[in-house]
Amino acid sequence: MEIKICGLRRPEDARLAVRLGAQWIGVVRAPDSPRSATLEEARQVIAAAREVDPEVRPVLATGRRTRDEVASDAFALGVERVQPHGLSEAGIRTLTEAGLIVHRVVTVPESAARLPDFEPPETEDGPLVFDVGGGGSGRAFDWRILGERAPRRAFIAGGLRPENIGRLLPYRPWGVDISSGIESSPGVKDPERLKRFFDLVRPLAVS
Fold this sequence. Notes:
alpha/beta, nine-stranded parallel β-sheet, 6 helices, about 30% helix
């Protein structure tokens, strides 16, 4: 199972996340997010994660940013993967044409009785992200609508916490994306909650 720790703003949090087993780390650039990092903060987070594991995959999550701003930030950070919230299909296409790998977000309302229609990704290079919306909301959709097994090549995000991750894992998600559920304050990861999350995920993910 793929594990992504998102909303990172501190190098020490990135190092710990990767040491514990995160294959993906996320930095946020969104003017209305309390987890929005400056470019320098994002650079330090990515550099710290790569010190631990050069193969770690950083993702730039954005909101209320134009396609040009997303591309500019990605290139400035040396990041090839972007997760834009609220960008048009034309904007996403432009990012792809610029050589970036786009992680498309599928918004799943809390009240949804079934998963929205979606186009499965062609490869694992650009997985989908199923989220309630906005990123870092701390809210989850009803995981029972995932059916017997969650969609392939998709992260499940929104409302994940050490207290509830055990209820998601029976649906065998390809990946999980967690941010606010392991924090002491926005953008500041709680080491004990982070460790507890990994302690719970590792044995259940391989069962």
